[in-house]
Predict the structure.
Amino acid sequence: MDQIQIGRFIAACRKEQGMTQAQLAEKMGVSDRAVSKWETGKNMPDSSIMLELCDELGITVNDLLNGRRITMDNYKETAEKTMLEMRAMKEQNDRMLLQTETLLGSVSVAFLLIMCVLAKYLPIQPWIQAVLIAVGLVQLIPCVYYALRIEQSAGYYKCSSCGESWIPQYSQVLFAPHFGRSRKMTCPHCGKRVYHKKVLTKD
């Protein structure tokens, strides 16, 4: 998807409706700056407001995502192309999120180890050693929480029994025995409690 083209299309449709950026922003419940970023191609409208935005601009979501009005002659072909592009974009975003999770976890664990090493080998009082270890442990808790949030929401978990892919609740991921990113959970499709491998695509 060409965000620059989509932005120009949003601007053109807004002007056709006789609205300023401020008026459109007010209708959508966002800031003028958000609309400006849409129209310059710096950001895309959030998916939660796309339908409402399209109603305001008098276009379809397919029109919006293609940056032009789609005729009935090529509607099916364009819709399929748009879906493939959106799927590829989601996979890329999920891949980046999982890389972020790995980095976050690695930095957090490394920091904890550094604090433990300092506490053990520096000639300091016992209470300072305890503080260093506590600092290492305290920073680990939110890092683990956010890392698991990323893992839970990015991509899917594929059942090793039936092959179906799904997105579990955070609590299911948190309490599941795991090996790397594979977690032992009860599959909602086949009902078996087996290991599920983290995958980027549903198919």
